[in-house]
Amino acid sequence: MRKTLVAALLAAVIANPAFAQENPDSDPNPNSSPFPASASLSSVFNPAGFGSEWENTVPVIASAPWSGPRTADGQPDVSGNWSNTIANHANFTDPQAGDPGYPSTAASLPRGQRAPSRVSDPAGGQIPYLPAARALQQDYERNFPEPSHAWHVEPLARCAPAGVPKSFLWHGWEIRQYPGIVLFLFDSGTRIVHLDDGPHLNDSIKLWNGNSHGHWEGNTLVVNVTNNNGKALFGRTGDFMSENATVVERYIFAEDGKRFNYVATFTDPTVYSRPWTATVPARRFTEADPTDDWFNNVSVANRPGQPLLHERLEQVCVEHNGPSDGGLFDLPPDGPVIDR
Q1: Which has fewest Cβ within 10 Å: 155, 218, 283, 312?
Q2: Res. 116: pLDDT tops 50
Q3: Could you tell me the pTM of the whole model?
């Protein structure tokens, strides 16, 4: 069995004593603050290039009993269309700063006037990489604007599944619920959460979205994710986990059902010096909200004479479609996304 590229490169870098010590990045002011009164949300906090407004704070939602509506099988009913509220996947730890090499307008503002890092623990807002893993992440980020190797090209650019956790950063998504299942319909594919304590897949099976088993604790969906293939990056800054990672996700829904926080703890001793946690805020979109090309990218159902209904269409960009222009960065259209 071939090693993944991540594992092979980690082994090579670890062998270099120059990476014997890590100097963790830190942000002296990771917390967001209110906008200047004169700032325009649509012009300042708009890293995705769309007219919809991004937020720059993360609401506090506590785990608690669920008092809202339930599905027929007793689950808290959270079905519907959702989207993250602070930024796309351009930058994981400085979400509104833009892509590496292509800073957004907001990047010129003081750090406290942009949304906080998605890394909520450690407090500094940075992923606690081991030295060799940090070197790989920085190599990707440095080469993102002008990639010279296949591994410098984001897999999502070739229609590979976005994976955990990036699927929650790339356009809006739909949650559907069935007996014993929570189904996520992402812009880049689907993901099933099995509501049971059944066994995970054999460790030799590795998947873009991993294997998910979970249960409800009041207003919180708790999910254990294993069997990740380590190929999906977290964003264009090159943050990643390996195929050895496990993730414990907590989807904490507000009592009114309009918001939830995705709080996920990542453990991977081959990449990180300790477990760390990411927080991604999301809000629900309904037929009362306008449609757009990012948050609420849905279509109007064709059913004359009936109430307005938004429905999510299946996306045509799927794995193995090839590069968007048929030969991006000299990658063969019929070759693997990344040769791992």
Answers
A1: 218
A2: yes
A3: 0.81
d(CA 83, CA 284): 7
pLDDT-derived band at 316 (thresholds 50, 70, 90) equals low
For β-strands 80-84 and 276-285, DSSP reports them as antiparallel
Is 194 a domain residue? Answer: yes
Residue 197 near residue 213, CB atoms below 8 Å:
yes
- Among 291, 316, 311, smallest CA distance to 301 is for 311
Q: Which of 289, 294, 261 is nearest to 57 (CA)?
A: 261
Distance separating alpha carbons of residues 164 and 230, to the nearest angstrom: 10
281 within domain boundaries: yes
Which of helix, strand or coil describes residue 265? strand
Count the residues in the chain: 340
Residue 176 belongs to a domain:
yes
Domain of 274? 5-16+60-330
How is residue 194 written in tokens? Answer: 């099995």
Q: Classify 236 as helix, strand or coil.
A: coil
Q: What is the DSSP string of 52-88?
A: SPPP------------S-B-TTS-B---EEEEESS--
Do 235 and 90 form a contact (C-beta atoms < 8 A)? yes
> How many structural domains does the chain have?
1
Query: Within a domain: residue 339?
Result: no
